[in-house]
Write a structure and sequence with these properties.
Elements: H1 3-69, H2 74-81, E1 86-89, E2 96-103, E3 108-109, H3 122-138, H4 144-155, H5 163-169, H6 178-192, E4 206-207, E5 220-221, H7 227-234, H8 238-244, H9 251-259, E6 268-269, E7 275-284, E8 287-296, E9 299-308
Parallel strand pairs: 3-4, 5-6
Antiparallel strand pairs: 1-2, 2-7, 7-8, 8-9
Helix pairs in contact: 4-6
Length: about 300
């Protein structure tokens, strides 16, 4: 057989094989790109839905802000909302909301543990210390002093800034959310190898937001304290309180009057404190979404969108 024919045939086969390889490679790339594109479109579709849901949340929030800011007898609204979630629905049934609110001051402010050097905040600091000491004993924390140091470091950051930077940062000093406090707990547990810190139901005793600039406004909403916290602060049997105590307007004054216990009105409020945190759940395209806001003395602000739940 002619060698030139064999060589030509071999080259032809190789070219076809190479062409087939290129075809398969291109096909694989196209399949991969198609998968990426489909995934992208699906993500884009979901993002579009989330964006529309966010716009809807902003519209709800704008209307809530407008309505709530005009209220005169605000304590009636919030004392009702504090009793439990309340559903609201438009007449045609197209729009529905589920409101859930609680007082921002229904516990010890965690930042009070960093107020030892503030002479006007000594009562608040002492109350916070009392609660932390009881919890440290009950849950056998290995180094509560170190935990308090970490909290104090967060309330009073050691970093130095220029005057201009410090003025912008000043309002953000302190522990402003439970997530921030949780990060402190994680650091404490890592440093001390103390697993018990995770067993404490901190939210039953403490609240997590900045302190008020006016010392006289740093008070505890007595009517809405947990039975556990009441038992610590006033040395009342928690078993009795768990059956006796119902969070509602006027409950604090009635309870302590029954036991003949006096309380410091600088530290405890037995009337409505106009500082509330609310969450709103709503449905958009058959999915549930949630956003939150705070209402402080008629100023509705700090909108946070949590997305699909």
């Amino acid at each position: 057989m002619d060698k030139s024919f064999i060589v030509a045939t071999t080259l032809h086969v190789r070219r076809r094989a190479f062409a087939l390889f290129l075809t398969l490679s291109i096909l694989a790339v196209i399949i991969a790109l198609t998968g990426v594109l489909v995934g992208y479109l699906d993500t884009a579709r979901k993002d579009a839905s989330s964006t529309k849901a966010l716009i809807q949340a902003n519209l709800y929030f704008a209307n809530i802000k407008k309505t709530f800011s005009r209220l005169k007898k605000r304590e009636i609204l919030y004392n009702t909302l504090y009793l439990g979630p309340i559903p609201l629905q438009s007449e045609d049934g197209r729009f529905s909301l589920l409101f859930s609110c609680h007082p921002m001051d229904n516990g010890i402010n965690i930042n009070w543990l960093g107020m030892e050097s503030k002479s006007l905040m000594q009562k608040q600091y002492n109350a916070a210390q009392q609660v932390l000491e009881v919890l440290a004993l009950e849950y056998e924390l290995s180094n509560p002093e170190r935990l308090e140091e970490m909290i104090d470091e967060s309330v009073h950051p050691k970093e130095t800034f220029s005057y201009q930077t410090q003025s912008r940062m000043e309002q953000k000093n302190g522990i402003v959310s439970y997530q921030q406090f949780e990060a402190i707990l994680n650091r404490y547990q890592f440093e001390t190898d103390d697993p018990n810190v995770g067993k404490v139901p901190w939210k039953k005793y403490f609240v997590f937001h900045p302190t008020s600039k006016a010392p006289e406004e740093n008070r505890i909403a007595g009517d809405y304290l947990s039975a556990k916290l009441l038992s610590i602060l006033f040395n009342i049997d928690s078993a009795i309180l768990s059956e006796d105590w119902v969070k509602t307007e006027g409950a604090f004054r009635i309870l302590l009057g029954r036991y003949g216990i006096t309380y410091d009105k600088i530290l405890f409020a037995d009337t409505f404190i106009d500082r509330s945190f609310c969450k709103v759940s709503y449905t958009y395209q058959k999915e549930n979404y949630v956003f939150s806001f705070v209402d402080i003395q008629g100023e509705v602000k700090d909108f946070v969108f949590y997305g699909k739940q």
